[in-house]
Write a structure and sequence with these properties.
By secondary structure, this protein is mainly beta. It contains no helices and eleven strands. The N and C termini lie far apart (37 Å).
């Protein structure tokens, strides 16, 4: 599975951005996708997750301001962020959780990261 995040940019405080995670490859093996972010000199933070059943959960820091959605094929997962704050400034990444079965019929669990997209919120 290959992932590429896009949609970042420079936005003023209070603005909105819609980030996209484009996936390709063995999409049928995806069972969840996370959005993470990492600010300079800070640890990577989980922003939110969407599962194959469509359920979502969010970090407290973005809850109520963010929505994660996906298409049925897992080809695109989006992160809509509203009411942006300077502390949202970070590089945003998507990560796919996958499960597939190898030639021996054994389950293989793997995670894949995409290249990030930079979000900068000016005060």
């Amino acid at each position: 599975v290959q992932l590429q995040a896009s949609g970042g940019g420079l936005v003023q405080t209070g603005g909105s951005l819609r980030l996209s995670c484009a996936a390709s490859g063995r999409l049928s093996s995806i069972n969840a996708v996370d959005w993470y972010r990492q600010a300079p000199e800070k640890e990577r933070e989980l922003v939110g997750t969407i599962t194959s059943g469509g359920s979502t959960n969010y970090a407290d820091s973005v809850k109520g301001r963010s929505t994660i959605s996906r298409d049925n094929a897992w080809s695109t997962v989006t992160l809509q962020m509203n009411s942006l704050k300077p502390e949202d400034t970070a590089t945003y990444y998507c990560r796919a959780h996958t499960l597939f079965y190898n030639d021996n019929g054994e389950p293989v669990v793997a995670g894949y990261w995409g290249k990030g997209t930079q979000v900068t919120v000016s005060s």
